[in-house]
Amino acid sequence: xxxxxxxxxFILTFLIGSQIALGDHEIEKSDSTEDVTTExxxxxxxxxxxxxxxxxxxxxxxxxxxxTEFLDNEIPVDSxxxxxxxxxxEFQISMDYxxxxxxxxxxxxxxxxxxxxxxxxxxxxYFPVYESVFDKNDLxxxxxxxxxxxxxxxxxxxxxxxxxxxWQFMPYTGKIYDLKIDRYQDERRDxxxxxxxxxxxxxxxxxxxxxxxxxxxxxNCGPGNIRKAIRHAGGKTGFWEIYPYLPKQTQNYIxxxxxxxxxxxxxxxxxxxPAYAExxxxxxxxxxxxxxxxxQAVAETLDMTIEDIRKLxxxxxxxxxxxxxxxxxxxxxSDKAHMFIDKEGExxxxxxxxxxxxxxxxxVVKRGDSLGAIANRKGCSVAEIKDWNNLRSNTxxxxxRLKLYL
Length: 406
Known about the structure:
By secondary structure, the protein is mostly helical. The protein folds into three domains: about 1-270, Lysozyme; about 285-350, no CATH class; about 360-405, Membrane-bound Lytic Murein Transglycosylase D, Chain A. Helix content is about 50%, strand content about 5%. The chain has 19 helices and five strands. The strands form two sheets. Strands 1-2-3 form a three-stranded antiparallel beta sheet. Strands 4-5 form a two-stranded antiparallel sheet. Helix 10 packs across helix 13. The chain is globular. The two termini are about 35 Å apart.
């Protein structure tokens, strides 16, 4: 049912030629450079029942910060080597080779090599989650490499135009895909939920375009720009057929994607080895909290710090469970999660000694009020008031009771 709802929205958007927010932000984000990948990397340097998420242990590998040098900064790959490698993989998405792909293989293997080495290490944490979501949605697993291009596997990555998270969703598109975005939490930073949203986007676009490279390209520039390129190409629909008519950033995007996918599978062939990168806690368990649970009380009782908890829960914007939810799942180290269950009574008692940073307030609308005026007086936004109260328009009437979280 959710997929049908999203599909209708996007197909209508495509047919009328409008741009959706996700695609638009990529053009805006990269307007100062021809190399979209370089730009993304530069921006992202700052980098109840229990349900346990365990990252499979990888075989021990050599971790080194040493950079492998190449003559003339050229990775020694040609079409025969490239295809002998990729043909050994069970990729569903076409991995093409041409001068543009070679250019980006050179770039990622030399200038970006230090970052590539970290991505290889971080992928041990993120890729199993991505693959689980894509497999469940019957999608090509190699879509996972889009996240490397988008965010360098940084859940806190933020673009100048407001795209956030591992999959760089703009606020409008994130909300279309049911990601909560408000002053208390931003689920674009949630690895599982944001990947589910990305999966729904890819699935929706796969019903519109019959070339996976075009689907991925639409993630960068939006389906409206793809439609224009198809029209200018005389109705041809293959990526390389519409390539000359796409924005420059999108022309770079697909060769970048192919290059990253290639090198993250065959780096050892070129003497490149993973480098150390701080990975999130490997074995974590979800626990259910409510606004009655103060995170400072949780941290004290479990002999943790607030920073420990926030590091495991990127969506949280404050040190409290949002007051506008009935419950919320948070991650804790598995041993601490079991302690949480055992000591929940103590946590709730201690939580009462802390004043919640956010409280629910009921505001009764007066004559002459508008959402804008109320938002200005209360220090919140119109969008937040509408979201808190499930309002579809800005129309309010005297006597209406609005829930505010202040």
